[in-house]
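Forum > Structural Biology > Help requests

Title: Can anyone predict the 3D structure of Uridylate kinase?

Hi all, first post here. I have the sequence for Uridylate kinase but no way to get a structure on my laptop. I'd be grateful if someone could post the structure tokens.
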Amino acid sequence: MSNLAYRRVLLKLSGEALMGDEDYGIDPKVLNRLAREVIEARDAGAEVALVIGGGNIFRGAGLAAGGMDRVTGDQMGMLATVINALAMQDALEKLGAKCRVMSAIKINDVCEDYIRRRAVRHLEKGRICIFAAGVGSPFFTTDSGAALRAIEVGADLLLKATKVDGVYDKDPKKHADAVKLDTLTYDEVIARNLQVMDTAAFALCRDASLSLRVFDMAQPGVLLKILRGEPIGTLVRA
Ligand code: UDP
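Reply #1:
Sure, ran it for you. Structure tokens for Uridylate kinase below:
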């Protein structure tokens, strides 16, 4: 038996997390490091699912700002998440892990369709599942996809890796006196008007009483530390 505080988790990585120091696309070194972290967590006994954004390639809102039809832009964004998922699958498999990409939009020549029962079975068998294409509809984000899938597969915790090491009482980039908050309830996040994730994703997590931990993935070994129960970043709980 593992000595972990969580049995099954879903880790949300933004597409930008794959870029490293580049301003577009995927840095193989960064991808490899993230894959190692995920495998370390899985080898310690956790069942790990991943959702990866697409912002390193396309975001529908950005494309729409440039004049493109928003739905088409969002579809391109969803395809970008599939590209990132395939890249991560490759990195995980090169390191010897078993992995399945499951997409919310049908693209089953390149990966499996998302089917909840099958996803749960993969996780039970120790395979790392990467849920691609968000919720499969435009006007959503991969934060919503991460929240939805975490709830569907019965994850104990949703992990949101960000560039900031937790939730602050105000934007730490703009205010030098911003204070990091260690634990919050969903109601406190609303009352204090804090930005944790987008509104749809936030509502899903709150209504399902799914705990969320916001943290910075830059520090090596951080994922396993969190799974062992270390209070890194900010915990948002029901
Ligand atoms: N997207 C979408 N529906 C979803 C998830 C994503 O339309 O359920 C599109 C949307 O255009 C979004 C893009 O895919 O901007 C990439 O996802 P996201 O912005 O969440 O990526 P991240 O910011 O995490 O890299």
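The chain has one domain: 8-237. Residues 70-94 form the longest helix (25 residues).
Shout if anything looks off.
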